[in-house]
């Protein structure tokens, strides 16, 4: 990547920033410097204070103390509008988009310099030009809720580009992208840097840090513990150690593959979109055995999420059948599916995984309150709930001030841990895990993968949806690759390669590889 000039006045300087929340010191005297043309990778465990620090830079929070300078001038940033006026824009880990509005409407939403009736033809033309220029395939008239998570990510990037931001903050921008899309993002960053832009890049993917960034800054428990040039770091393992303070295993020991009886089976499953059109699932067939991890690979938006929602009763099946433990569960209710032993870690953790206004403890016990363990004659045993929640908080190292804290106040990674803890604990034989390590630091990712392998070694069937081919090759026994709602092929993970999987993800038939 292009080098930057450290002699110039920094475009951003945050000095001794401190921020408290109830029961939490999120940032403790943190300072940060960003130069023009620089990519700074901001690292840390879940809950280390990275997103909080950036939220103060974009005006979502106010620091309790400290100063922020933008392009050499002391800045008083009270709102995202103030930060955008200063040329600062942020892509959040949880997207800030209005689901029932179009791409174009979301991109211009809140812009004060537009007329009462915006010139939508010109706006759409500019969006199309930017999407072509940066290689971001987005259609301006599409409704946000009809887009895949990966497509929504592109809209967020375009929103910043359209508004002319030259200081970009990207919070886990590749968490929803395939390896190819991540490389595309790297090319986008290079184009931005060539135009004089700068970026702060929050990620848990060590390889991306080494490839994308000039400088690394590490936060731990709200404090800055290290800042150094990326080129001075020799091994990925050293980065991981800086983040979590211990060595991380980058490989997992697996027991022998001993598949049992078929526990999940899909036969020619068809799901049609509302209003008709091309099937989102097109005659999908496969089976998963006990003691097996069945991986699903594919670019976002190719049917992975509809497949898991069809199995769990969240989406109507228009054709074919789904069997769970030998029973026909086609179009059964989610509760019936749960009672038949299925746990589900959903793709959208904020909308489907937790109830934000409820406490951490209540979210953890959500799958248990019908059982005699936590309730009696429809009355919740609050003391048992508290013991149960404290146990899961400890086992899954969920960082929360207390189990009474509303789950919406946790970091994205700790919300994910809350869902993982609940679903793995309640698993009755079948675990459906959709992007389970998304947004988690390297230590937590290691723990998640170990827990998934434990489920397999207990004889449970696991359906693992991931866009990280490295994760699938490391954890899965079989991998099905989806493209445009179809299964292109099912391969043995032990003999598969990333190149082969990548070609299948692009829609190339196996005979042509």
TrEMBL record:
Its EC number is 3.6.3.17. It is an enzyme of class 3 (hydrolase). Keywords: ATP-binding, Cell membrane, Hydrolase, Membrane, Nucleotide-binding, Repeat, Sugar transport, Translocase, Transport. This is Monosaccharide-transporting ATPase. GO terms for cellular component: plasma membrane. One of its GO terms (molecular function) is ATP binding. Pfam families: ABC_tran. It is a peripheral membrane protein. It comes from Sphaerochaeta globosa (strain ATCC BAA-1886 / DSM 22777 / Buddy) (Spirochaeta sp. (strain Buddy)). Gene3D superfamilies: P-loop containing nucleotide triphosphate hydrolases. Residues 12-246, 264-509 form the ABC transporter domain. It is found in: Cell membrane. Its main location: membrane.
């Amino acid at each position: 990547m292009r080098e930057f000039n450290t002699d110039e006045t920094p475009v951003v300087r945050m000095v001794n920033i401190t921020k408290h929340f109830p029961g939490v010191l999120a940032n403790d005297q943190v300072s940060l410097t960003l130069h023009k043309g620089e990519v700074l990778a901001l690292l840390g465990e879940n809950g280390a204070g990275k997103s909080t620090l950036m939220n103060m830079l974009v005006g979502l929070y106010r620091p309790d103390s400290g100063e922020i300078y933008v392009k050499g001038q002391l800045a008083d940033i009270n709102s995202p509008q103030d930060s955008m006026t200063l040329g600062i824009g942020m892509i959040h880990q949880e997207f800030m988009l209005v689901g029932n509005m179009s791409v174009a409407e979301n991109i211009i939403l809140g812009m004060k310099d537009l007329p009462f009736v915006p010139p939508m033809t010109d706006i759409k033309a500019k969006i199309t030009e930017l999407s072509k220029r940066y290689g971001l395939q987005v259609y301006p008239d599409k409704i946000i809720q009809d887009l895949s998570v990966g497509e929504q990510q592109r809209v967020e990037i375009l929103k910043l580009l359209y508004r002319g931001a030259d200081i970009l903050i990207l919070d886990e921008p590749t968490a929803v992208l395939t390896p190819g899309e991540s490389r595309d993002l790297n090319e986008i960053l290079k184009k931005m840097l060539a135009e004089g832009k700068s970026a702060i890049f929050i990620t848990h993917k060590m390889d991306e840090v080494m490839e994308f960034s000039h400088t690394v800054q590490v936060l731990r428990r709200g404090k800055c513990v290290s800042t150094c040039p990326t080129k001075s770091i020799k091994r990925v393992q050293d980065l991981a150690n800086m983040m979590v303070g211990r060595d991380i295993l980058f490989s997992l020991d697996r027991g022998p593959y001993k598949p049992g009886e078929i526990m999940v089976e899909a036969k020619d499953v068809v799901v049609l979109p509302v209003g008709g059109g091309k099937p989102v699932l097109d005659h999908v067939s496969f089976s998963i055995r006990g003691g097996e991890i069945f991986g699903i690979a594919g670019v976002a938006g190719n049917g992975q999420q509809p497949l898991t929602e069809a199995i769990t009763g969240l989406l109507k099946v228009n054709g074919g059948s789904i069997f769970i433990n030998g029973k026909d569960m086609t179009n059964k209710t989610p509760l019936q599916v749960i009672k038949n032993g299925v746990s589900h870690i959903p793709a959208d953790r904020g909308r489907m995984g937790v109830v934000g206004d409820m406490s951490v403890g209540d979210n953890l016990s959500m799958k248990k309150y019908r059982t005699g363990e936590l309730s009696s004659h429809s009355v919740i045993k609050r003391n048992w709930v508290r013991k149960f929640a404290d146990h899961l908080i400890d086992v899954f190292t969920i960082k929360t001030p207390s189990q009474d804290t509303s789950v919406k106040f946790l970091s994205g990674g700790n919300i994910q841990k809350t869902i993982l803890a609940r679903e793995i604990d309640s698993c009755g034989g079948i675990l459906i895990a959709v992007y389970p390590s998304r947004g988690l630091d390297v230590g937590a990712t290691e723990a998640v993968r170990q827990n998934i392998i434990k489920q397999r070694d207990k004889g449970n069937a696991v359906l693992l949806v991931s866009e990280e081919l490295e994760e699938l090759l490391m954890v899965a026994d079989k991998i099905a690759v989806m493209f445009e709602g179809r299964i292109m092929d099912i391969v043995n993970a032990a003999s598969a390669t990333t190149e082969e999987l990548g070609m299948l993800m692009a829609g190339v038939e196996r005979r042509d590889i």
